[in-house]
Amino acid sequence: MVRASGQLPAAPGPAPGDDARDDARDDARDDARDDARDDAGQAEVHAASQGALEELASRLGRLAMVDQPLGSRTTYRVGGSAAVMVEAGSTDDLLAVSEALRPLAGSVPVLVLGNGSNLLVADRGFGGLVVSPGRSMAEVEIAGTTLRVGAASSMPVVARQASAAGLMGFEWAVGIPGSVGGAVCMNAGGHGSDMAAVLLGARAVDLVAGRVVDLPAERLGLGYRTSAIGSGQVVVSAELSLEAGDAAEAMAQIGEIVRWRREHQPGGSNAGSVFMNPEGDSAGRLVEQAGLKGFRMGSARVSEKHGNFIQADEGGSADDVARLVFHVQGVVAERLGVWLTPEIRMVGFDQAGSAGSPP
Ligand SMILES: Cc1cc2nc3c(=O)[nH]c(=O)nc-3n(C[C@H](O)[C@H](O)[C@H](O)COP(=O)(O)OP(=O)(O)OC[C@H]3O[C@@H](n4cnc5c(N)ncnc54)[C@H](O)[C@@H]3O)c2cc1C
Q: What is the pLDDT confidence band of residue 266, given thresholds at 50, 70 and 90?
């Protein structure tokens, strides 16, 4: 999995004038590229050899699903297939995956898939193993003000259950169409809160070490839409600490958040905010200022409603979405001197954007 680091396009339109501004812009771009290079450390192998994949599928036995379409498992609803996929029903299944991977020693890239609401999978697919916690890992237990929730639980469902039980502090999660595991990994948040504010800790299966690990929140490195969870760690459950409150009040807040989202965010196929907000600014505002609202490339377009949403047409192409992500990134850098960092995770693209080269 590689974060986007497209080359800058030669953007049309007026360029910012003075040297100081150009220097600042160059510095911002260099910093972002260094960050992207650091992140690329997670990428290791892009695709496994056919032999390694066959060996893996055979070692996985009944757990292996071969050539599984991923588009329908993401909210973008575009993109290719996983060479091999496992829908894990339990921690034991994940330990079996670890066992199957062991002799292949890093030659098969692994992607953990939640609800696919923050992922863009390339049209060529993912040439490795996709591991996803299955429906049986979606249990929710409430004990006092503490919730123990399975990784596959849906954030909106947990938000509603907690609110109905009179627990407050998780209403914001009703607007996040992801799984709890994905939310821990992304430190998802909104409406002034995030996972870091409520998370006591997470349990994960470390696919490399082949064991279950309990990770207190302080060790999860939670920051703005980031965590220290590595690509070989599968979150299986999380423990949340909420506050005792009033169910009617919590449900009213849920209603207000749902209303706000409908009013301000587009529907259709997307993965929420494409770019992280730069410190003190909003990515959507910058995209709009760069004149890109409504801009289209093939089957992908920047939403008219919200500049930080890129939508894919039904039956569209993930590579078009990726080209547009790189284009927006480049135009905003050229026109406004800000290098936007993608929040969405781009899977199966190479460092320069296999989607075709950035424009
Ligand atoms: C309409 C819309 C609105 C959105 N609004 C917001 C918002 O307000 N705030 C916000 O933060 N996000 C928002 N998002 C993005 C997305 O919902 C969140 O990032 C969410 O937390 C992703 O969860 P997921 O289960 O879909 O993860 P996925 O998209 O499947 O994966 C995201 C990342 O998490 C990793 N991951 C997934 N599951 C696990 C697991 N069990 N263990 C380890 N790693 C895992 C994946 O490998 C990947 O790196 C929005 C998306 C949409 C479509």
A: very high
